[in-house]
């Protein structure tokens, strides 16, 4: 998703959040750590570290990215915190560090409270599967499979023997996603899913959100919009792409029901990620987004402040004065303010509260499949 090349098929997002619990009493009343997989919506610095190894400098590593971190670009694809950061804060845990670190920096003790394997630009399927189908990923080969391999390889250093690691996994909240790209539907339709593999490793409760309303993305509106397209009369979003996202979510729920039927001892919840975000697109002024929901804060010229030839972080890019009044940060990713609202909509629901001993309600989680 960090790629500047945008297409209808390669820009589809798959978000899978996986919660794991055990019957033990945890320090925060819920979980003792967060373990994350995915792409740019969750990456807290892994692509930046990979790029430094190969001496690559990408615009997303430069200001104004990360400007809310005292002008320190952390590798997050936003001006500030991501959903994973707000979730960590909500659970009373430290911000989750990237797995990849500078040589000599041993964070295995820190990783006991959280570790992030997500890499911006990652795909669900490996390069060996995608490239024969004409799908080339110029960003990274750190697919979901590669990230899972990192996870398995690092477990002994983090938690010791198999019994201790199974307990560690059971005490952790695990996020799997976002994973975007042409391959979004393969994990749903073919083979053993990531959810099933994690269940085998000890997962007892899985909460799996659906897709974003991608028809509201400033980049898609710029690249795919035309007089022939149908736009929602309330939000201004592309109807066709949002219908596509809703269709994806329907397939996802069907797959989750199949997994649930195979694992009666596991609770699987579907999180309505689509409507958690759609709340903002329907009522931007209610949430303080006075510059609307569709224009990007950082980018180039054009109706939606998006120019495919000018990336946020480029010297020629423009940056808005008040990012908190925008939903879109760079045309693909959202602002910290938007992620804060979406996190609240997702993680203040009765279902989540029943796991984490908090209150209030929201639109995020639907019941066990």
From TrEMBL:
Record key words, sorted: Glycoprotein, Hydrolase, Signal
Pfam families tied to this protein: Lipase_GDSL
MF terms in GO: hydrolase activity, acting on ester bonds
Organism superkingdom: Eukaryota
Family: Belongs to the 'GDSL' lipolytic enzyme family.
Record's protein name: Putative SGNH hydrolase-type esterase domain-containing protein
Organism: Helianthus annuus
């Amino acid at each position: 998703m960090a790629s500047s090349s945008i297409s209808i098929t390669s820009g589809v997002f798959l978000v899978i959040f996986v919660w794991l619990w055990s019957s033990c009493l945890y320090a925060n009343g819920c979980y003792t750590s967060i373990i994350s997989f995915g792409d740019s919506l969750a990456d807290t610095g892994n692509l930046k570290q990979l790029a430094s190894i190969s001496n690559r400098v990408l615009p997303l590593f430069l200001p104004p990215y990360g400007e809310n971190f005292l002008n320190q670009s952390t590798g997050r694809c936003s001006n500030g915190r991501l959903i994973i950061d707000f979730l960590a804060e909500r659970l009373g845990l430290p911000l989750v560090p990237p797995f990849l670190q500078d040589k000599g920096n041993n964070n295995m003790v820190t990783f006991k409270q959280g570790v992030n394997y997500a890499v911006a630009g990652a795909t669900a399927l490996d390069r060996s599967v995608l490239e024969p189908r004409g799908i080339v990923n110029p960003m990274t080969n750190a697919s979901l499979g590669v990230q899972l391999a990192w996870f398995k390889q690092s477990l002994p250093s983090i938690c010791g023997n198999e019994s201790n690691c199974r307990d560690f996994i059971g005490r952790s909240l695990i996020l799997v996603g976002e994973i975007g790209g042409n391959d979004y539907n393969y994990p749903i339709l073919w083979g053993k899913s990531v959810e099933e593999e994690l269940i085998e490793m000890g997962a007892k409760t899985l909460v799996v959100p659906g897709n974003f309303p991608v028809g509201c993305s400033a980049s898609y509106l710029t690249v795919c919009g035309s007089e022939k397209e149908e736009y929602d009369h309330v939000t201004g979003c592309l109807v066709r792409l949002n219908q596509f996202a809703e269709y994806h979510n329907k397939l996802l729920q069907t797959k989750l029901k199949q997994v649930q039927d195979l694992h009666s001892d596991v609770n699987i919840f579907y999180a309505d990620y689509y409507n958690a975000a759609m709340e903002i697109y329907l009522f931007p002024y209610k949430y303080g987004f006075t510059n609307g929901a569709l224009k990007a804060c950082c980018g180039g010229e054009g109706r939606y402040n998006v120019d495919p030839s000018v990336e946020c972080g480029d010297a020629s890019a423009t940056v808005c004065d008040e990012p908190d009044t925008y939903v879109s940060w760079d045309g693909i990713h959202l602002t910290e303010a938007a992620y804060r609202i979406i996190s609240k909509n997702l993680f203040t629901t009765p279902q989540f509260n029943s796991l984490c001993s908090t209150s209030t309600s929201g639109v995020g989680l639907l019941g066990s499949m």
